[in-house]
Amino acid sequence: MKIFNSQVKLSVLSLLSTFFLLSCENDTTDIGANLIPDKLEGKSTFVDLVAYNIYNNDTIRADYNSLNNGLVGIYEDNIFGKSKASFSIQVRLSTSDKIKGNIQQVDSVVLSLNPPFNPSSYRERKIILNPGSTSGIDTIKYVKKYTLASYLGKAGNSMEVNVNRIKNTFLESTSSKFYSNKIIEVGDKLGSALLADSLTSISVKTSDGKIISEPTVAGYRIKLDPEYFYQHFFSKKGSSDISDNSRFIQYFKGIKIYPVDENSKFMFNFPVSKMTLIAYYKYKDNSSDKYTATTYSFTMNSAYNSMVGEYNFYNRNTASSQFKQQMNNPDKQSGESILFLQGMGGPSIHLKLDDSQLEAIKDSVQNHNWAITGAKLKFYLTENVSSKPGYIYGYNYSQKKFLPDLTFYSGLAGYFFNPKYDFDTNPQYYTLNITKQIKDIVEKNKPNDEILVEMGNFITRSTNSNEYLGYYKTTRAYEPFRLTFYGNKNTGNKKLRLEILYTKN
What we know:
Blueprint: E1 24-25, H1 31-34, E2 43-47, E3 49-54, E4 69-77, E5 81-89, E6 103-113, E7 117-128, E8 139-148, E9 151-153, E10 158-166, E11 186-196, E12 198-206, E13 211-213, E14 220-224, H2 226-232, H3 245-251, E15 255-259, E16 266-271, E17 276-284, E18 292-298, E19 307-315, H4 321-328, E20 338-342, E21 348-353, H5 355-367, E22 371-380, E23 392-396, H6 405-408, E24 429-433, H7 435-444, E25 451-455, E26 460-461, E27 464-468, E28 482-486, E29 498-503
Antiparallel strand pairs: 1-2, 2-29, 3-21, 4-5, 4-16, 5-15, 5-19, 6-14, 6-17, 7-8, 8-12, 9-16, 10-11, 10-15, 12-13, 17-18, 20-28, 21-25, 22-24, 22-29, 23-25, 26-27
């Protein structure tokens, strides 16, 4: 399909400019420049909209079919209030390991979580392990601390988390629907850990470059009670409780990971696919005097491990009065001056473009020789918060489907429906490019559908980054972030509105 018809003769519709077309020179570094075949300098104009918050009642579907990541932590501010996140998952028998020997001694049991981090953002400390050596060659321990990539909170915090065995709550199957207000009852405590706001990796080398030990995987390692696992698992070798998974998940229903301290700390998410639960033990037969060391790896990330994210502890009493007012009584007629956006089950942003102004643009295109080369929504932050997500996204709320720009221009270099936030130059706004959506309205008479904007990004198939799984398959359920934007009831350049780029001859 041709993006533009270069044979169309272009002119300017001046009658409409007095009431809403505030034209200015086009920023040719923006998306419109990539779409102008003849490289002519373009112009821009604006269309008003109405935007307000949808509350969502602080709940969201948070089960196997909506969680690629787990989310754990607690955080509070004076705008959104307090949020607490816990994560529960079934534990299944190993697919390859067996309990070996007649006698076992469990040395340690380790639950590993591996949150995403920025490999280029780290602090390194060098520790000389053999001071005073006369050989001239030192052994050096390198300790690298990496910044978490999906982290909400102030730097320097630490947070205690518990891991407990699930009690009286069966997580059913991976086809089960769970929502984030589900309460998971816990029983015996299996372990705890004090988690820092960074991930540590350790390696050892000599000063002449010889590698003594490779860098450890940067992540959280939570030590669980080895005696408990001996009593409730290894000593039950041969028992029907652990004979197969159908019996085992009834007997040992799973684990819950949750923050202990109710004070504001931080939140982080982690890929479920990288979770491990490994028991390190040694075994022997009755007739042997020698133990052999081995491991037992429980299955944590298969296509059968049911899970649920629990975000049921929301304290909106400490939220701002404006937040509470807009959640309870949004101005759906004229919109808002401030818009709130939050991950998990927090508020979304609903917006509708002005019908009459789009009709004027349509008239300009159809009868007065305009060619639209770009259309974008810019969401300006009201403050430069330290913890920001890479993406926000939107979809056609009226028809419950993708906006066409997500895939239509995917092959066009430099064009993205929701480009990643520019952390380097810090432009203070997020962008949704909806060129195709607007061209369909003004050129093909398609309806001016409502748009819903939410925190996070669409999920693609693991084997194909260009294949999206569905408008409802997103990272929103485990995004910890919260942002405030300028709404449509503002003046100046930060007002939320649609910018349309066009050319003329």
